[in-house]
Specification:
The protein has 373 residues and is of the alpha/beta class. The chain has 17 helices and 13 strands. The strands form two sheets. A seven-stranded parallel β-sheet has the order 3-2-1-4-5-6-7, with helices on both faces. It has a six-stranded parallel β-sheet with strand order 10-9-8-11-12-13, with helices on both faces. Strand 5, helix 6 and strand 6 form a beta-alpha-beta unit. The protein is globular, with a radius of gyration of 21 Å.
């Protein structure tokens, strides 16, 4: 069968490539064509356009490159029309992908499947109307999404979380690669975000928070695609090691962590590293207003969202300051009640997420559904 996949950023490229390999194991005649990245191409996809040419995020970058984005969407739809796949599989990237779903549903007789749901449970819940109308099957990687979508009369399939697979695979090779050198100090991992704006807001507070703590070894896990000079300009003369391209290696060796909200909070928990979630916004006093008006969930970190309770502290907006971060981090640096409670919470969270095998389960269901059709 012919599979057309669309992913718009590095994480989507990774998840889509693993899904493609899992599909190929079940469909020996599978053909793949894609909007995506290097990993999807390496998994056997014929790459039509690289996501780097369309990966604009934030109001102003999107507005100034709107012509490029719209041109990419037109090219994608035209290419789908001409190639005539058996299914279109959309991976995250909601703004672009939901527009593709609408066009395919309206003009073509091709089923649309979605792998890794748009996070409409956090905000933009009105998009459920588009999903109900345009998406035939949705494969979720977050268990709490099931209840949300069913409340909106849309039945989805929870297949597990691919981050569990990625970390399980990493750990299986632990003994075959060099670990970070141990100098006797406890490592505090700093994960300050994946985009320049996030890093420039969060990293200075993180660095200042750990400056006065004796006996620790701060290590900054640098995001891919961000040049060393950018980190150097922010870190200045702060005593921090910088590690590139090895976030999992840093977490594997860490004793505690400061983490900007996102998938990194889940990764940190799966490595059993107690953490403080930190997220600073440009106008911190507006955070409470933004949460009240737009954000429809109790928590922002995936650890707490999956668990349904506050396992890790979340310091958001004006609460993300040097004193608060320092005071929440210090109890995690020894065998304390706070540390043990987080580790117990991680155990519960893992049981909710379920075992590894998300791409395989999704692929099995996708191939079975298409065979039935």
């Amino acid at each position: 069968m012919k599979y057309y996949l669309v992913a718009g950023e590095a994480s989507g490229d990774l998840h889509a490539s693993n899904l493609m390999r899992a599909i190929a194991r079940r469909d020996s005649r599978a053909q793949f064509r894609c909007f995506g990245g290097d990993m999807m191409q390496a998994a056997g996809g014929e790459l039509v356009k690289h996501y780097r040419e369309l990966a604009y995020m934030g109001f102003w970058p999107v507005l100034t490159h709107l012509g490029t984005i719209l041109g990419g969407a037109r090219l994608c739809f035209r290419d789908i029309s001409e190639w005539k796949p058996d299914v279109v599989i959309l991976v995250d990237y909601p703004g672009f992908n939901l527009s593709i779903a609408e066009k395919v549903h309206k003009h073509l007789s091709i089923p649309v499947y979605y792998y890794i749901s748009p996070k409409i449970w956090a905000w933009k819940s009105w998009r459920i109307k588009n999903i109900r109308r345009d998406v035939d099957e949705l494969f979720s990687i977050l268990p709490f999404e099931v209840e949300f979508f069913r409340k909106h009369d849309y039945d989805i399939r929870y297949v597990g979380n691919p981050t569990v697979d990625e970390i399980s695979e990493f750990k299986s090779f632990s003994g075959r690669r060099p670990a970070l050198e141990d100098d006797g100090r406890r490592i505090v991992a700093l994960l300050a975000g994946s985009r320049r704006q996030e890093i420039s807001r969060n990293l200075p507070v993180m660095l200042e928070s750990v400056r006065s703590i004796d006996g620790i070894r701060p290590i900054l896990a640098c995001a891919p695609g961000i040049e060393p000079e950018f980190y150097d300009s922010i870190a200045g003369d702060a005593e921090v090691e910088k590690v590139y391209g090895n976030t999992f290696g840093v977490l594997e060796s860490a004793y505690a962590a400061l983490v900007t909200s996102g998938t990194a909070t889940l990764e940190t928990a799966l490595f059993d590293v107690p953490q403080v979630v930190c997220y600073k916004v440009p106008v911190s006093w507006a955070m409470s207003i933004i949460k009240k008006l737009f954000i429809k969930v109790r928590f922002v970190s995936l650890v707490n969202l999956v668990s349904g309770s506050e396992v890790v502290p979340e310091l958001l907006g004006s609460a993300m300051n040097v004193g608060n971060v320092h005071d929440h981090l210090v109890p995690l640096l020894s065998d304390t009640t706070e540390r043990r409670m987080q580790l117990d919470g991680y155990t519960r969270m893992k049981s909710i997420l379920g075992p590894a095998g998300a791409p395989d389960r999704a692929a099995m269901q996708i191939v079975d559904l298409l065979n039935q059709k």
